[in-house]
Amino acid sequence: MKTKTLLIAAAALAVGVISSQAQVYSQNIVGYANIKLNTGYNIVVNQFNCGVSNGANEIFPSVADGTTFLQWNGTGYTYSIKDSSAPPAIWYMSDYSTPTNPPIISPGTAVFVQVGAVVTNTMVGTVVPNSGSTYTNSLVAGYNLIGSAIPVGGSLTNSLFAFTPPDGTTMLQYNGAGYTYNIFDQSAPPVQWYMSDYSTPTNAPNINVGQGFFLQLGTAYKYIQAMP
């Protein structure tokens, strides 16, 4: 999943601080991100307030009929399928016959998006949080399918990620065939990240703009990010 981000407008954000993975211009908090979705499954996080409801129809206007969205519900997935071939219904449940509403995806929340062919989706909206404020994503013990609420890319050491979860937290990044595991633990500095064996030190994971991931927590955690 590759991205290109453009932030436009009127508040003081330093050019280039948002993403090392995407070209960024910033004056304000309005912007868009072009996110390439590969054939099959992709984990995508909503990084804007999109439209009026943060519905999948507003966040993913570029995906084709037959695209399936999988929302993590704590024990499994809730499926929603887009198909505009038989209006007025456009969204269906997993049986592909029961109409439903487009899924709501709040900023900082990620979903699996299954597409039948490579597509670039343009996500447009207002960056959260506003300049000079914070955004809190309240996470539960166990698995959470999330990402950065700010359109930032690169190493998790980037201060805009503000990523300091409890020691023992496991991050699972989908790689197209399975998951790459990394464990966060800063109890034995300077090492903070370990491979899945919990003994081999490794670098902090790199995250692309728009890329989501699973976070496995031992306890509830408030993930707070601030915009300069």
Description:
It is a single chain. The chain is mainly beta and 228 residues long. The protein folds into two domains: 35-127; 134-226. The protein has one helix and 18 strands. The chain has one helix at 56-59; strands spanning 3-8, 30-37, 40-45, 48-49, 68-72, 77-82, 91-92, 110-115, 119-127, 134-139, 142-146, 154-155, 169-174, 179-184, 193-194, 206-207, 213-217, 221-226. A hairpin with a 4-residue loop joins strand 5 (68-72) and strand 6 (77-82). Residues 7-27 have low confidence and may be disordered.
Query: What percentage of amino acids are in beta strands?
Result: 35-45%
Please state the overall shape, judged from the principal axes of the Cα atoms: globular
Based on DSSP secondary structure assignment, what is the total number of beta strands?
18
Distance, first to last CA: 27 Å
Which structural class do the helices and strands define? Answer: mainly beta
Give the SSE order as H and E letters: EEEEHEEEEEEEEEEEEEE
Number of helices: 1
Radius of gyration: 17 Å
List keywords for this structure.
228 residues, mainly beta, 2 domains, five-stranded antiparallel sheet, 1 helix, 18 strands, 39% strand
Q: Topology of this structure?
A:
Elements: E1 3-8, E2 30-37, E3 40-45, E4 48-49, H1 56-59, E5 68-72, E6 77-82, E7 91-92, E8 110-115, E9 119-127, E10 134-139, E11 142-146, E12 154-155, E13 169-174, E14 179-184, E15 193-194, E16 206-207, E17 213-217, E18 221-226
Antiparallel strand pairs: 1-2, 2-9, 3-8, 4-9, 5-6, 5-8, 6-7, 10-18, 11-17, 12-16, 13-14, 13-17, 14-15
